[in-house]
Amino acid sequence: MAGLKYMSGFGNEFASEDPRCPGSLPEGQNNPQVCPYGLYAEQLSGSAFTCPRSTNKRSWLYRILPSVRHKPFTPMSCGDLTENWNEVEPDPNQLRWKPFIIPKSSEKKVDFISGLHTVCGAGDSKSRNGIAIHMYTCNTSMTDKCFQNADGDFLIVPQQGEILITTEFGKMMVEPNEICVIQQGMRFSVDVFGETRGYILEVFGAHFELPDLGPIGANGMANPRDFQTPVAWYEDRTVATGYTVVNKYQGKLFSCQQDFSPFNVVAWHGNYTPYKYNLENFMVINCVAFDHADPSIFTVLTAKSTRPGVAIADFVIFPPRWGVADHTFRPPYYHSKSELLTTYDIMLRQHLYIFLTVTISIVHETVEMSLLC
């Protein structure tokens, strides 16, 4: 969408205020006795208060009405969304799926929430360790409805159709060849512009980070400056018919009603934010004299576990690149690991079809995964 602005950087201490309310961001303190414009101050924490400074995540939001002003949550249908892996027997075989069919809007209106389908996963949100992989297929925008994931972070990969994501921090337009991350506890709504489909990698108990570069040096792979965070935007809107907040909590869905839009944050500051990234900005490191470098060099984002060097999940891409080597079998070597591999896009470049492949690796060892067919 033309006119949307972003701030550059990964994990920065950002500060933003809507230009319609100059001076709405308090200066010199987080929680003044009276906030500018009579706003309410809220802190959204992405980590424990006592986490080391390098891993401490939080943002301060200054909003027209507090987010806790809503009616009680009640259970709602989860549809095809689950993290109960006991529903199916584990299957160690290689599996493949046909493309998920996008419902026709003329037949059935399906928004982002009702179009979520769990494909596979391991672990669970209660133990704060594990992942789930979902597909979304939808044809209708979320109207007077938002989603909040209390279980973990969503890494969203649009495959067909662009999506406009409205968050408490501002708006992001995310197109195919881009990804975005909505971190735990952040409310968001998704607008679509036709038949839309994509992937979601959900991680429990960790946030996505840039991988360490080691001997690669200071630059390469996904550079921090290429990540984009939205600027503050708000709407002061009363919804007499009721605004629905859907909360994912311990793998179940709950909903509540309130009479105002949750996207009423006039200003904010902090390092716990949603963000997006264009995969075409990934700097590929691969040209070798012989053999193949391990696929970890294609990691865009990683969610680390408590074991050094072992990730809960890696988000890996295999973008167009030069592949030059002597005395080497051209395709990569066979190796055993758990992963979800998808052909994400086909681009015509220099009369050659190039497949941009996205790999979601689940830890660097064999794990038991349940796959929902």
TrEMBL record:
Signal sequence, start to end: none
Protein name (Swiss-Prot/TrEMBL): Homogentisate 1,2-dioxygenase
Alphabetically ordered keywords of this record: Dioxygenase, Iron, Metal-binding, Oxidoreductase
NCBIfam families per record: hmgA (TIGR01015)
GO biological process, alphabetically ordered: L-phenylalanine catabolic process; tyrosine metabolic process
Family per record: Belongs to the homogentisate dioxygenase family.
GO molecular function terms attached to this record: homogentisate 1,2-dioxygenase activity; metal ion binding
Pfam families the record matches: HgmA_C, HgmA_N
Residues at the catalytic site: 292
Enzymatic class: oxidoreductase
InterPro entries assigned to the protein according to its UniProt record, in alphabetical order: HgmA_C, HgmA_N, Homogentis_dOase, RmlC-like_jellyroll, RmlC_Cupin_sf
Keyword field contains Lyase: no
Binding-site positions, Fe cation: 335
Domain of life: Eukaryota
E.C. code: 1.13.11.5
Annotated Homogentisate 1,2-dioxygenase C-terminal domain residues: 281-336
Required cofactor names: Fe cation
Species this chain originates from: Sinocyclocheilus rhinocerous
Pathway involvement of the protein, from the record: Amino-acid degradation; L-phenylalanine degradation; acetoacetate and fumarate from L-phenylalanine: step 4/6
A Gene Ontology term for the protein's cellular component: cytoplasm
Domain Homogentisate 1,2-dioxygenase N-terminal per the UniProt entry, residue ranges: 5-279
